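Researcher: Good morning. I'm working through a list of sequences from a screen, and I'd like to move beyond sequence-only analysis. For each chain I'm collecting a predicted structure so we can compare shapes side by side. This is the next one on the list. No need for commentary yet; just the structure.
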Amino acid sequence: MQSFNFNNTAGIRFGNDLSVTSSEEVSNKLGSKILFITDPGLVKLGLIDETVKALKVKSEVLIFDSVEADPSLKTLMKCVEEGRDFNASGIIGFGGGSSMDTAKLTALLIGSGEDIHEAWGVANAKGPRLPLALYPTTSGTGSEVTPISIITQDDLEKKGVSSPIILPDLAILDPLLTVGLPPHITAATGIDAMVHAIESYASKSANNNLVSKMLAKEALKLLGESIEMAVSNGKDVEARSKMLLGSMLAGSSFGNSPVAGVHALAYPIGGTFHIPHGLSNAIVLPYVLRFNIKDQNAAKLYSEIAPIIFPEMDLSTSSQDISSKFIENLSNLSSNLGLEQRLRDVGIPETACETMAKDAMKQTRLLINNPKEISENDACDIYKSAW
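Model: Good morning. Structure tokens for this chain:
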């Protein structure tokens, strides 16, 4: 069998109310001065209150609540500055992928003093970082178990740091933090988690491995059997639990067998037009997969995971037919969950397709993993199909 590397978060904790009851362990790990990174929406909802109160029993806590969707480089550097002034001993990221990604790089930059512009890319971060704990409040990004952080640059291009150094010490998975998530966000982030598992399973990365494939399958099982209930009845804790675990497993999978073309084409949609990342992925997903199944091996891989999400599928036909039906079912699922289906539905003009295609080509670290090579012309055609 091929050699591979598998890295993951050192400590994963799962359970109802764990965001409060784990506070002693978190304080012991992060120290006496904790920088708590979150977004203004969660502060307004009061979702952070009990966690912060419990942490203050042993640690001083400074709240940085200026993280926006698709966090900017300016926001990151402001957070780093406040953390340094506070003399933070440890970092918490509490929220969706934006807060957790900001927390990862804040921990890195304060802990190491390195230049962020030298850390972009794969395995360029030097470290060390400050102690780090992440609390996801959505079931989508899996950022609590991935070695990746994505930041939007001043020119709106998204750049990433990919390094095991930024994997956190603790991931605190509390399903009750996700109960209040609105249906549309639940749907978009849930499809995003599915994309992570699908792309990881079929990734052309040399590090695609048995462990990642196993995690991707289990993630798709949990997400497939819970996403509709989580969207229709957000207070169903069982469904929320399965979604949160499925998202985490998908994150562990793609953190080692990286994602590909769907994400590469989704980034310009979010970076330029500020469409949420999960929704951007959901919109381009079927169109990228339809392009990919022109490759026989990609069609075979998609046909292997199709019945995990859609157990009623007829598997007596060819892998090409099964994968085509799989893509159709994914598209129908997205529509049934109430998500916008085309670029025009989210206000993107058709004239933007060429510019987005050019921008997508900058995502070389992702495109290299796609089962079928995507040229700039291919990307433009995919965008036009999605329009």
